[in-house]
Amino acid sequence: MDENTGVFSARRAVIPARTLRTDRWWLQPLLTVLGLGAFVIYATVRAFWGAAYWVPEHHYLTPFYSPCMSTACEPGSSHFGTLFDFPWFIPYAALSLPFLLGFRLTCYYYRKAYYRAFWFSPPACAVSEPHGKYTGETRLPLIIQNVHRYFFYAAFIVTLINTYDAILAFDGENGFGIGLGNIILVGNVVLLWGYTLSCHSCRHVTGGRLKNFAKHPTRYWLWTKVSKLNVRHMQFAWITLGSLVLTDFYVMLVASGVISDLRIIN
Amino acid sequence: MSYQGKFRVWRGDADGGDFEDFTVEVNEGEVVLDIIHRLQATQVPDLAVRWNCKAGKCGSCSAEVNGRPRLLCMTRMSTFAEDEVVTVTPVRAFPVIRDLVPDVSYNYTKAREIPAFTPPKELAPGEYRMQQQDVERSQEFRKCIECFLCQDVCHVIRDHEENKESFAGPRYLMRIAELEMHPLDAADRTTEAQNEHGLGFCNITKCCTEVCPEGIKITDNALIPMKERVADRKYDPVVWLGSKIFRRDRGKS
Ligand code: SF4
Ligand code: SF4
Ligand code: FES
Ligand code: FES
């Protein structure tokens, strides 16, 4: 930061330190970097892996490969048909992953998290940022964050697809059955709905955009429900990263024969 | 139950200043403002501090304690260890007048720039009616005590003096949101928030919400809803197209 701006501007109290905070303010950004970093690495590796994503016996499909659209997808794993043989650099779920990535990248919570942790803008409250200039989301490229609602619509559809996958998984090769995998898939989908429906854009479209609640009782009611979820949006954002990895990892282990699914019924 | 506490208090004015160290008596149940008052009474009679209610309701005693924007009268001494040095400075986003007293006139300027409540022309005063659900929504924003801690912590102006001109700060963007969500307000607040008051500068990093002594969810309930309304108006071709075709008065429904 410039020596003469920000907290060092003329007429402000002359204090040489960028922050006088004595608590561990750096811990939260650090955990954010580690958490998001770990997820991005895992997700990238798995998205391009091209194997161990489908358990034919129990019809488990990992969310990282849903919908599976390449002709190379394992038989039975493509619930919505296939397009063509994807080259190695296109993930089999190329139709959903970019939208899911966009959804999370433009999410109001993740924006807060990475603006703070990766861009130090600001690193923590009352800790001066290291940048000389700041225009925020007033112009390109960050003004693009305003498209978030489109990603919300797209993610809504993808979550429907994930739900469909989770339901289909109850009908395995030998008919109806329930295993640990089913519980994990369903749990993951429930959490994904929690994340998707608690989105600020969702809160806005259901009722937030109204100027007069009293005139729209149904939308007002919906808004109150979404608002209840919305206060947990950050929690859902982190929990779903975990549940996605856990679900994918479990399917990967079963699909590659490292472990066998724990069956409860059939 | 009392002990000798160590304090580091910033003293000076707009031309310069420095920290001074003090050892002062601290008693059970006291807040930082009590200690500042004891300093005035026993050691530095000319120490300047602004306060009024000592009840967290007037918003006068905003300062920074151990680097965190706080109300002096609501910061309990019991939150510090007895051997901890407690550092007290004036708020760092605004010019200082003397010691712990800042010049908060930026906020008054910004307040004046927002057009007042604009009722529809066809209604006479006395005919305004509003339902409870709609009252509740702005009730939260009206808890504001104008302590300006949110304005102080916001990095847009705290770290960038030059943005003060174009950015109203969370407290006043929240005021715009309050008017925008008022069923009877007829003015165009959305475009105004983006074009005149710098809503786009906010990167929703939520420090305003973190420091608000009234616990107002400024970011979630005022700033993000305003950003969504701006997106409706300026960046949503579907809404734009719909409004062209159906001539709907967007957002006023
Ligand atoms: S959320 Fe926006 S207004 Fe609030 S402190 Fe952060 S940048 Fe400033
Ligand atoms: S919104 Fe909260 S922090 Fe900001 S001035 Fe009002 S009471 Fe203070
Ligand atoms: S998904 Fe986080 S705000 Fe929309
Ligand atoms: S003295 Fe009134 S809020 Fe602290």
The gist of it:
The complex is a heterodimer of chains A (266) and B (253). Chain A is mainly α and 266 residues long.
User: What is the rounded distance between the termini of chain A?
Assistant: 64 Å
User: Compute the gyration radius of chain A: what is it?
Assistant: 22 Å
Question: How many domains make up the coordinates of chain B?
Answer: 2
Biggest beta sheet attributes of chain B: 5 strands, mixed
| Largest sheet descriptor of chain A | 2 strands, antiparallel
| Mean pLDDT across residues of chain A | 95
Separation, N- and C-terminal Cα atoms of chain B: 60 Å
Using only CA atoms, what is the Rg of chain B? Answer: 22 Å
* Helical content class of chain B: 25-40%
What would the average pLDDT of chain B be, to the nearest integer?
A: 94
Number of helical segments with 4 or more residues of chain B? 10
Order of helices and strands of chain A: HEEHHHEEEHHHHE
Q: Total strand count of chain B, please?
A: 7
Plain-language structure description:
- Chain A is mainly α.
- Chain A has 8 helices and 6 strands, in the order H-E-E-H-H-H-E-E-E-H-H-H-H-E.
- In chain A, the strands form 3 sheets. Chain A has a two-stranded antiparallel sheet. In chain A, strands 3-4 form a two-stranded antiparallel sheet.
- In chain A, helix 1 runs parallel beside helix 8 (233-255) and helix 6 runs antiparallel to helix 7 (217-230).
- The longest helix of chain A is centred in the N-terminal third of the chain and has 23 residues, at 27-49.
- Chain A starts with 26 loop residues before the first helix and ends with a strand.
- Helix content of chain B is 36%, strand content 16%.
- Chain B has 2 domains: 2-102, Ubiquitin-like (UB roll), CATH 3.10.20.30; 105-252, Alpha-helical ferredoxin (Fumarate Reductase Iron-sulfur Protein, Chain B, domain 2, Orthogonal Bundle).
- In chain B, strands 2-1-5-3-4 form a 5-stranded mixed β-sheet.
- The longest helix of chain B has 18 residues, at 218-235.
- Chain B is built from 10 helices and 7 strands.
- The interface between A and B is large, with 59 and 68 residues.
- Residues 144-150, 171, 211-214, 216, 218 of chain B line the site of one iron/sulfur cluster (SF4).
